[in-house]
Amino acid sequence: MHPREAARLEALLDLDILDTAPEDHFTAICETARDLFRAPIALVSLVTETDQWFKGRCGIGLPGTERGESFCTHTVVSDEVLVVEDAAQDPRFRDSLLVVGAERVRFYAGAPLEVAPGLQVGSLCVMDRVPRTFTARQRGQLQNLARIVTAQLRLHKTERLLREREARLAHLARHDPLTGLPNRLQFRECLQGEIARAQRGHDGFALLCLDLDRFKAINDSFGHHVGDRLLQSVADRLRAAVRDEDVVARLGGDEFVVIQPGADRARAITLAQRLIAALSSPFDLDGHERQIGVSIGIALAAAGPVHGEALHTRADKALYAAKASGRCTFQFAQTVEDGAREPVLRRRGAA
Length: 351
Description:
Elements: H1 5-14, H2 24-37, E1 41-47, E2 51-58, E3 64-66, H3 72-75, E4 82-84, H4 97-100, E5 107-116, E6 119-128, H5 136-164, H6 167-174, H7 184-199, E7 205-213, H8 215-222, H9 224-241, E8 247-252, E9 255-261, H10 265-280, E10 283-285, E11 288-290, E12 293-301, H11 308-324, E13 330-332
Helix pairs in contact: 2-5, 8-9, 9-10
């Protein structure tokens, strides 16, 4: 057992490479080692708590073995190359299935893969089915190849960290950092997507603009930290009140929007009533109940040509009408039939 086994296993798991698909560069290193040392078997072996798993291999069909059967579990306790000239005569290995089983391994040479000082996670090894010697020069060559494998393991970790970073940045670019809801950018993308569906003749949709009632008073009286927690709670209730296919976004401050695909007037009314009810219940902030409300403006987009900015403007005007009528209520925007003018998208080249 490695003297720092827990840290060694943590370093191995941190590579995020166990049970991943074969990769050509690890296979190529195994083939290079096999040809260089004229050995029928070469492996990149990673030693877990219970097993050894082959990230790269040639000359053997096994994907791995139990740790107790492996040579490499002895290699990882040192930073030196381990050489076993005749495994059948070595009491550590003579009863291993790799020796007495179908593989009939007799010779082993393994260089440890040290990913951090004193932490060896596996080995690059070569094996033969006849006893052999291994010169000092060959030991040095195997160590050099092992350094290349170690560099590839570290690169794998670096690439993972970079991916975790293209993903966090991409998420931040399209989500509100306080609530985790889609931000204005993603809202516009989703709105354009629904407009495109409507223009292709699919069902229309509803756009609901929401503005919190009495939020400013709480924010001013109790501070931004209380206001932020209130906004987070509001976001949670909005998520719970909509369907999976609906989009809830925060545009800034206490301004939210909901895109409701496939909605008609009746469905939009049902959703608006549900949102008002959800946000009318008291919020527990620092052990004190605080009550707010929400005013909602609704614009309906039927199948056919729609202009996104104009639709949003109509819903926003309806929101102000709802606030003016007493708050904690909703209003529908005027339709074209009611006299409202709305520009439509025209295909390029159309008159």
